């Protein structure tokens, strides 16, 4: 490993960038494949981008082109073309890793960056779903293939939204507000209301989509919302150390489910079915395998949230801190 991956900092283009370890969100939330493969590649890309002054948002936008190109290449029934698409999708995800690492390394985080980052994956998979539907029709399927294609697409949006949300909740508990990207609809609504359609049309449109996205996350986690509201009111000066430790112990095992329904698992199986020339199976995998995992993950997370809500409400074990 080079000196650039050690614990010291390095400077490029007048900006300080942190070590590889500090470019990660948290070992609790990182998947093994990401740690071993995508994050090292993303780190090297991030170092290069920092050196030439490229912003995280620019990296995200570039990733969209590679991800969408992958979907277009999956339309072909030629395996060689599909393999090029697979490589394009892997590179898109490496860029997706790099944009977050670059943002943390250069302390260049923004709400727009977070929204773009989430939207990038949606663009990739919209392209992939459309390509598989058209490909399947060429193979003899009727237009009915669009039904599982759309259902799987909606399922993917919900799966990604909840996995992302639960990861940020975990980071909020163990690293605080500055260490997570956890938003809430009340604050977003206030920001949205301050924008006008005449003067801020683009930002207001983006803010509307993001507000809807956050409302979806919150609507599927009612007990978690009660817990977050309780701790925001009770621990304004920061969470007690014993609460952080206890929550991490209880919640960390759930992080593996957020990883399963995210990028790596679905893409490994997508590639498998492309090699088998049965790409349509991907839709049914998303609906009948990943959705039950999503439901189980949500139920488990709600149980953990209910446990801590009752414990904080009914005992003085975690003390009381306020400004």
UniProtKB/TrEMBL annotation:
Species in which this protein is naturally found: Dyadobacter helix
GO biological process, one term: phospholipid biosynthetic process
Residue ranges crossing the lipid bilayer per the database entry: 58-75, 143-166
Pfam family, one: CDP-OH_P_transf
Gene3D superfamilies the record matches: 1.20.120.1760
Protein name per the record: CDP-alcohol phosphatidyltransferase
Single GO cellular component term: membrane
Keywords, sorted A to Z: Membrane, Transmembrane, Transmembrane helix
InterPro entries in alphabetical order: CDP-OH_P_trans, CDP-OH_PTrfase_TM_dom
Top-rank taxon: Bacteria
Signal peptide: none
GO function term, MF aspect, one: phosphotransferase activity, for other substituted phosphate groups
């Amino acid at each position: 490993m080079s000196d650039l991956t050690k614990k010291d900092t390095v400077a490029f283009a007048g900006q300080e960038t942190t070590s590889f370890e500090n470019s990660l969100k948290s070992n609790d939330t990182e998947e093994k494949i990401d740690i071993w493969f995508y994050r090292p590649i993303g780190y090297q890309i991030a170092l290069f981008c920092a050196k030439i002054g490229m912003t995280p948002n620019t990296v995200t936008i570039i990733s969209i082109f590679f991800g969408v190109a992958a979907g277009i290449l999956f339309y072909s029934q030629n395996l060689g073309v599909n393999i090029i698409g697979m490589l394009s999708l892997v590179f898109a995800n490496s860029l997706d890793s790099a944009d977050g690492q670059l943002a943390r390394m250069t302390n260049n985080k923004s709400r727009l960056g977070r929204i773009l980052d989430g939207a990038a994956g949606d663009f990739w998979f919209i392209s992939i779903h459309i390509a598989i539907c058209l490909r399947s029709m060429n193979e003899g399927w009727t237009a009915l293939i669009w039904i599982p294609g759309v259902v799987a697409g909606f399922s993917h949006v919900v799966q990604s939204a909840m996995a992302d949300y639960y990861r940020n909740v975990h980071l909020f508990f163990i690293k605080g507000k500055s260490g997570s990207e956890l938003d809430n609809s009340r604050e977003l609504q206030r920001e949205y209301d301050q924008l006008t359609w005449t003067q801020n049309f683009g930002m207001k449109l983006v803010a509307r989509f993001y507000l809807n996205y956050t409302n979806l996350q919150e609507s599927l986690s009612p007990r978690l919302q009660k817990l977050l509201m309780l701790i925001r009111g009770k621990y304004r000066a920061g969470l007690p150390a014993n609460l952080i430790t206890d929550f991490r112990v209880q919640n960390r095992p759930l992080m593996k489910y957020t990883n399963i329904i995210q990028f790596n698992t679905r893409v490994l199986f997508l590639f498998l079915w492309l090699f088998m020339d049965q790409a349509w199976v991907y839709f049914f995998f998303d609906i009948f395998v990943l959705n039950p995992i999503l439901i189980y993950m949500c139920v488990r997370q709600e149980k953990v949230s209910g446990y801590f809500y009752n414990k904080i409400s009914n005992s003085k074990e975690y003390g009381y801190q306020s400004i």
